[in-house]
Design brief:
single chain, mainly alpha, 46% helix
């Protein structure tokens, strides 16, 4: 019984360890793993009113869906705009233009 208990105690750290060989996010070109942990993808989906498959195919690392490269370009645009503010705050986000829609409005909605 002691041997079984000792064996289990030794196996717990092995089983809890992350998989070897870089099991983390792949193909990150603009974002960092900590951005993903902070929930940035949720912010993007809410800002555009879409689900993950709007930009991603089943293999999340794939660039097969053209919306993914469009999203990268938009991230670069917002970063560039925000870098021009001296206070270091994020003044422009996806929501600034998209307001929960896939395509941002280019004209104001009609008056009610």
């Amino acid at each position: 019984m002691r041997i079984l208990l000792l064996s289990l105690l030794c196996l717990i750290p092995i089983c809890a360890a992350p998989p070897q060989g870089g099991g983390g996010p792949k193909n990150l070109k603009l974002l960092k793993p900590e951005d993903l942990r902070a929930g940035i993808m949720h912010v993007y989906t809410v800002s555009l009113g879409v689900q993950c498959n709007f930009c991603h195919v089943q293999d999340r690392a794939s660039d097969e869906n053209p919306h993914k490269n469009i999203a990268r370009h938009m991230i670069e645009i917002t970063r560039d705009i925000n870098s021009k503010f001296s206070d270091g705050k994020e003044h422009v986000t996806c929501f600034t233009c998209h307001r929960g829609a896939q395509e941002p409005l280019t004209v104001a909605p009609p008056a009610q």
